[in-house]
TrEMBL record:
This is Deoxyribose-phosphate aldolase. It is an enzyme of class 4 (lyase). SUPFAM superfamilies: Aldolase. SMART domains: DeoC. Keywords: Cytoplasm, Lyase, Schiff base. Its EC number is 4.1.2.4. It catalyses: 2-deoxy-D-ribose 5-phosphate = D-glyceraldehyde 3-phosphate + acetaldehyde. Its main location: cytoplasm. It comes from Chitinophaga alhagiae. The gene is deoC. Catalyzes a reversible aldol reaction between acetaldehyde and D-glyceraldehyde 3-phosphate to generate 2-deoxy-D-ribose 5-phosphate.
């Protein structure tokens, strides 16, 4: 398992500095991580930091609570694309999920998807699985599967509970094979990352990417 290619090396703190973003990007390039995930204002500069490497630049929309209007999410999506973000992690409207307003959620994804597809970007829809009921997770998987999103993502990292092996396994059970799962929120050890990957995650969102790689190397050394 090439752990590095699973990792979205992430910094989304409200007080993130340019130096933080530069350090994140340099680490991502050094370890050949799948992507960096940065706040929207840092997308352009992150693109210059990662350059022509295989590391993609991701950013967030509707973050972190998901309840911004569809029009706001459209505007954020357009700006992220203009700034050349490769991947967009969009928070679903959690209020709509909890209130069972599936028509609103369908309108939201139906409005955003053409923008993403027309520019051949990757979209990951964050559903905050740690605070949803099991049937809500299943309904989300069914909805986003119909629209062919690239990933369904467990968490923002801002709720009281992040990724869990159980939620990833449930999502994998109810998503087509072609739709990936990104597990994020509280992934701070190599052992936990491994468990999430074995449950079906193909991306790991974490601010501890370097620590995970060092743990993985140590575990490999111990095995041999």
């Amino acid at each position: 398992m090439d752990l590095n290619r699973y990792i979205d090396h992430t910094i989304l703190k409200p007080l993130t500095t340019l130096e933080d973003v530069k350090k994140l990007c340099m680490e991502a390039v050094e370890y050949d991580f799948a992507a960096v995930c940065v706040p929207p204002p840092f997308v352009k500069i992150a693109k210059t930091f990662v350059g022509s490497t295989t590391t993609k630049v991701a950013t967030v929309t509707g973050f972190p609570f998901g309840y911004s209007a569809i029009e706001a999410k459209v505007a954020e999506t357009v700006l992220a694309i203009i700034d050349e973000a490769d991947e967009l992690d969009m928070v679903a409207n959690l209020l709509a999920i909890r209130n069972g307003d599936w028509a609103y959620l369908e309108k939201e994804i139906a409005t955003v998807m053409p923008l993403v597809r027309n520019k051949q970007r990757v979209i990951k829809v964050i559903i905050e699985s740690g605070i949803l009921l099991e049937d809500e997770i299943i309904r989300c998987c069914e909805l986003y599967a119909r629209y062919g999103v690239d990933f369904v993502k467990t968490s923002t990292g801002y709720a009281e509970k992040g990724a869990s092996v159980e939620a990833v396994a449930l999502m994998r059970q109810h998503l087509p094979a072609g739709i990936h799962i990104k597990a994020s929120g509280g992934v701070r050890t190599f052992a936990f990352a491994q468990q999430l990957i074995h449950a079906g995650a193909t991306r790991i969102g974490t601010s501890a990417g370097v620590a995970l790689m060092k743990e993985a190397a140590q575990a490999h050394k111990t095995e041999n």
